[in-house]
Amino acid sequence: MNSYYPVLQSWLADNNYHEGGKDYGLDLAQTKYLLNAAYLRVKNITVGYTLPHQLTKKVGIDRLRLFFTGDNITEFSKIKKYLDPESIIDGYGWAYPYQRKYSLGLNVTF
To answer: In this structure, are residues 39 and 79 in contact, taking their beta carbons and an 8 Å threshold?
Structure first.
């Protein structure tokens, strides 16, 4: 079997055609066009650093913290170009993609 597209034989599915212990009907599972739907999505990352108190007390600051937050950073998926694996809006995976958001922050306590 070296054809790319399956042969249309609906009458086989109606008859559940079996011959010699082998199934020939369309009720057989077709895996040639099956895609792997496994994916990994990085939804949220927050990285922060609080400067040591010995450095901040010299300038009159009790606490100084810098941070970065990112939402929907990336997705690793082989079906990403066909559909979004988390999309359930229309049942077919077609929806507006998740937006990426980045934030930088500074938290100062005097």
So the answer is: yes
Provide the 3-class DSSP secondary structure of residue 55.
Answer: helix
Helix, strand, or coil here: 60?
A: coil
Residue 71 contacts residue 46 (beta carbons within 8 Å): no
Give Dmax (Cα) for the chain: 89
Amino acid at 103: S
- Backbone region of residue 84 per phi and psi (left: phi > 0; alpha: psi in -120 to 50; beta: other values): beta
Which two tokens mark 101?
A: 């958001």
Mean pLDDT by 10 residues, the chain (110 residues): 64 57 59 79 95 91 96 85 70 72 95
Q: How far is CA 55 from the centre of its chain?
A: 42
Residue 78's pLDDT is 81
**Against a cut of 0.70, is the pTM above it?**
no
